[in-house]
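Data deposition worksheet. Section B asks for the primary sequence of the deposited chain exactly as it was used as input, without tags or linkers unless they were present during the calculation. Section C holds the resulting structure in C-alpha coordinate form. Section D is free text for depositor observations; keep each observation to a single sentence. Incomplete worksheets are returned to the depositor.
Section A, Depositor: J.P.
Section B:
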Amino acid sequence: MYGTIPNPPPRKNGAGRTERENPAGPSPLSLALKIIIAFHAFSVPLWLFGQTFSIWQYDMVASTGLQPPRDVSDNAVVENNRAIAMADSVVLIPLHAMAAVGLLQRQFYGVITAWMAFALSMYWPAIFWMSLIAYQQGGVQHEAPDAESLIVTAVVFVFAAWGSWYLCRSKEMLIWHEKEFS
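Section C:
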Protein backbone atom coordinates (compact mmCIF):
# COMPACT_ATOMS: atom_id res chain seq x y z
CA MET A 1 0.00 0.00 0.00
CA TYR A 2 1.00 3.53 -0.64
CA GLY A 3 2.32 5.33 2.46
CA THR A 4 3.17 2.27 4.52
CA ILE A 5 6.65 1.18 5.44
CA PRO A 6 7.27 -2.49 4.75
CA ASN A 7 8.60 -4.68 7.56
CA PRO A 8 12.36 -4.93 7.39
CA PRO A 9 13.77 -8.37 6.63
CA PRO A 10 14.75 -10.36 9.72
CA ARG A 11 18.32 -9.75 10.86
CA LYS A 12 20.91 -12.48 10.79
CA ASN A 13 22.42 -13.65 14.04
CA GLY A 14 26.08 -14.61 14.53
CA ALA A 15 25.45 -18.15 13.27
CA GLY A 16 24.18 -16.86 9.91
CA ARG A 17 20.56 -17.76 10.68
CA THR A 18 17.77 -15.29 11.04
CA GLU A 19 16.46 -14.63 14.51
CA ARG A 20 13.19 -16.35 13.59
CA GLU A 21 15.03 -19.59 12.76
CA ASN A 22 16.23 -20.06 16.36
CA PRO A 23 13.06 -21.08 18.23
CA ALA A 24 15.01 -22.07 21.34
CA GLY A 25 15.88 -18.43 21.99
CA PRO A 26 19.35 -17.04 22.55
CA SER A 27 22.26 -19.36 22.99
CA PRO A 28 23.38 -20.03 26.58
CA LEU A 29 26.01 -17.79 28.10
CA SER A 30 29.55 -19.10 27.88
CA LEU A 31 31.29 -20.25 31.06
CA ALA A 32 33.73 -17.34 30.81
CA LEU A 33 30.88 -14.85 30.60
CA LYS A 34 29.14 -16.48 33.58
CA ILE A 35 32.37 -16.10 35.58
CA ILE A 36 32.63 -12.44 34.57
CA ILE A 37 29.01 -11.83 35.60
CA ALA A 38 29.65 -13.58 38.94
CA PHE A 39 32.72 -11.36 39.51
CA HIS A 40 30.65 -8.21 39.04
CA ALA A 41 27.71 -9.51 41.09
CA PHE A 42 29.99 -10.62 43.93
CA SER A 43 31.85 -7.30 43.87
CA VAL A 44 28.73 -5.29 44.78
CA PRO A 45 28.28 -6.64 48.34
CA LEU A 46 32.04 -6.65 48.93
CA TRP A 47 32.35 -2.99 47.96
CA LEU A 48 29.20 -2.16 49.94
CA PHE A 49 30.67 -3.67 53.09
CA GLY A 50 34.31 -2.76 52.62
CA GLN A 51 33.81 0.76 51.34
CA THR A 52 30.31 2.13 51.92
CA PHE A 53 30.00 0.77 55.44
CA SER A 54 33.47 2.10 56.32
CA ILE A 55 32.22 5.65 55.77
CA TRP A 56 30.17 5.37 58.98
CA GLN A 57 31.78 2.43 60.80
CA TYR A 58 35.45 2.68 59.84
CA ASP A 59 36.84 0.94 62.91
CA MET A 60 34.45 -2.02 62.61
CA VAL A 61 35.36 -2.54 58.93
CA ALA A 62 39.05 -2.15 59.79
CA SER A 63 38.68 -4.92 62.37
CA THR A 64 37.85 -7.30 59.49
CA GLY A 65 41.04 -6.38 57.64
CA LEU A 66 39.32 -4.56 54.77
CA GLN A 67 40.69 -1.18 55.85
CA PRO A 68 43.90 -0.35 57.73
CA PRO A 69 43.31 0.09 61.48
CA ARG A 70 43.18 3.64 62.79
CA ASP A 71 45.78 2.97 65.51
CA VAL A 72 48.52 1.98 63.04
CA SER A 73 47.71 4.56 60.35
CA ASP A 74 48.22 8.28 60.13
CA ASN A 75 44.90 10.14 60.57
CA ALA A 76 45.25 11.62 57.08
CA VAL A 77 45.43 8.09 55.64
CA VAL A 78 42.24 7.09 57.46
CA GLU A 79 40.33 10.17 56.28
CA ASN A 80 41.66 9.73 52.75
CA ASN A 81 40.41 6.11 52.82
CA ARG A 82 36.98 7.30 53.93
CA ALA A 83 36.89 9.83 51.07
CA ILE A 84 37.85 7.09 48.61
CA ALA A 85 35.09 4.92 50.09
CA MET A 86 32.57 7.65 49.36
CA ALA A 87 33.71 7.91 45.75
CA ASP A 88 33.70 4.13 45.29
CA SER A 89 30.17 3.97 46.67
CA VAL A 90 28.96 6.50 44.13
CA VAL A 91 30.89 5.23 41.09
CA LEU A 92 32.22 1.69 41.37
CA ILE A 93 29.31 -0.09 43.03
CA PRO A 94 26.78 1.07 40.39
CA LEU A 95 29.20 0.13 37.60
CA HIS A 96 29.57 -3.43 38.93
CA ALA A 97 25.78 -3.75 39.35
CA MET A 98 25.08 -2.40 35.86
CA ALA A 99 27.73 -4.68 34.36
CA ALA A 100 26.25 -7.79 36.01
CA VAL A 101 22.68 -6.95 35.02
CA GLY A 102 23.59 -5.78 31.52
CA LEU A 103 25.70 -8.84 30.73
CA LEU A 104 23.06 -11.15 32.16
CA GLN A 105 20.42 -9.49 29.97
CA ARG A 106 22.76 -9.65 26.95
CA GLN A 107 22.79 -5.91 26.52
CA PHE A 108 25.75 -4.07 25.09
CA TYR A 109 25.67 -1.49 27.91
CA GLY A 110 26.70 -4.41 30.15
CA VAL A 111 29.89 -4.77 28.13
CA ILE A 112 30.65 -1.05 28.34
CA THR A 113 30.04 -0.84 32.10
CA ALA A 114 32.01 -4.07 32.62
CA TRP A 115 34.98 -2.47 30.86
CA MET A 116 34.62 0.60 33.06
CA ALA A 117 34.45 -1.50 36.24
CA PHE A 118 37.37 -3.64 35.06
CA ALA A 119 39.46 -0.51 34.42
CA LEU A 120 38.84 0.63 38.00
CA SER A 121 39.47 -2.92 39.22
CA MET A 122 42.94 -2.67 37.69
CA TYR A 123 43.46 0.90 38.88
CA TRP A 124 42.79 0.31 42.58
CA PRO A 125 45.32 -2.52 43.05
CA ALA A 126 47.89 -0.30 41.32
CA ILE A 127 47.01 2.55 43.72
CA PHE A 128 47.35 0.14 46.66
CA TRP A 129 50.77 -1.05 45.51
CA MET A 130 52.02 2.46 44.73
CA SER A 131 50.73 3.81 48.06
CA LEU A 132 52.81 1.21 49.88
CA ILE A 133 55.88 2.46 48.06
CA ALA A 134 54.99 6.12 48.70
CA TYR A 135 54.24 5.50 52.40
CA GLN A 136 57.56 3.73 52.82
CA GLN A 137 59.51 6.48 51.06
CA GLY A 138 57.63 9.26 52.87
CA GLY A 139 57.89 7.73 56.32
CA VAL A 140 54.10 7.57 56.71
CA GLN A 141 52.91 5.33 59.53
CA HIS A 142 50.90 2.44 58.08
CA GLU A 143 50.26 -1.24 58.57
CA ALA A 144 52.42 -3.44 56.37
CA PRO A 145 50.25 -5.56 54.08
CA ASP A 146 50.07 -9.29 54.57
CA ALA A 147 50.73 -11.74 51.75
CA GLU A 148 47.00 -12.38 51.35
CA SER A 149 46.34 -8.70 50.52
CA LEU A 150 49.06 -8.70 47.90
CA ILE A 151 47.78 -11.94 46.35
CA VAL A 152 44.13 -10.83 46.29
CA THR A 153 44.98 -7.50 44.66
CA ALA A 154 47.15 -9.27 42.08
CA VAL A 155 44.37 -11.77 41.29
CA VAL A 156 41.81 -8.96 40.91
CA PHE A 157 44.18 -7.05 38.63
CA VAL A 158 44.91 -10.08 36.42
CA PHE A 159 41.23 -11.13 36.31
CA ALA A 160 40.15 -7.61 35.31
CA ALA A 161 42.76 -7.54 32.54
CA TRP A 162 41.64 -10.97 31.31
CA GLY A 163 37.93 -10.05 31.56
CA SER A 164 38.48 -6.88 29.54
CA TRP A 165 40.39 -8.82 26.91
CA TYR A 166 37.72 -11.53 26.78
CA LEU A 167 34.88 -9.05 26.33
CA CYS A 168 36.85 -7.31 23.60
CA ARG A 169 37.56 -10.54 21.71
CA SER A 170 34.27 -12.38 22.28
CA LYS A 171 32.01 -12.92 19.29
CA GLU A 172 29.04 -12.94 21.68
CA MET A 173 29.64 -9.26 22.37
CA LEU A 174 29.82 -8.46 18.65
CA ILE A 175 26.42 -10.07 18.14
CA TRP A 176 24.97 -7.97 20.99
CA HIS A 177 26.50 -4.85 19.48
CA GLU A 178 25.09 -5.63 16.02
CA LYS A 179 21.67 -6.37 17.51
CA GLU A 180 21.50 -3.04 19.35
CA PHE A 181 23.19 -0.73 16.84
CA SER A 182 22.26 -2.04 13.41
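Section D:
The CA atoms of residues 50 and 109 lie 26 Å apart.
The two ends are 26 Å apart (CA to CA).
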